Amino acid sequence: MAFLGKLFGGGKTAERQEQKVTTSVAIQKLRDTEEMLKKRTVKAETAIDFESQEHAKLIDFHSQVDEMLAVGTATMGKLRDQRDTFSRIKSSLSEIANQLGMSNTVMRLIEKRSAMDNLILYGLMIIFIIFMIIVYIYFVR
After folding, report:
1. Is residue 70 in a domain?
2. What are phi and psi of 9, to 5 degrees?
3. Is residue 12 predicted with pLDDT exceeding 60?
4. What total of structural domains would you count in the chain?
5. Which domain, by its residues, includes 19?
6. Which ranges of the chain would DSSP assign to H, the alpha helix?
7. Which residues, in sequence order, are CB contacts of 4 under 8 Å at separation 6+?
8. Is residue 124, in this structure, part of any structural domain at all?
């Protein structure tokens, strides 16, 4: 019978069943492949989204670092200006202190000279009075 079935096309049904099975298996394989591709696409899109978010964060971090550097540079400039100002103030105060020291020394010298001048004045006054008394005694007697 198998011979007659093959002769009259009966064997084709068995081949058709094998083809149907093969076709259904092929369709299932295609569906599985399509699902895997969808999963990969979703994973790729997720990875791209993650990388784009990471890139955006890196750009934001880079701009923050640039901003911090700018603030640091400005702060350093201001600190240098303040250092220069304080050094000028220090030199001015040093000059004033030197002038005050010299003024103090001059004031002490003036006080000493004034005391000496007073001694000389009083000494000469006493000598003049004594001289006048001697002259009076000499001429009046």
Report:
1. yes
2. 95, 5
3. no
4. 1
5. 9-140
6. 2-7, 10-140
7. 10
8. yes
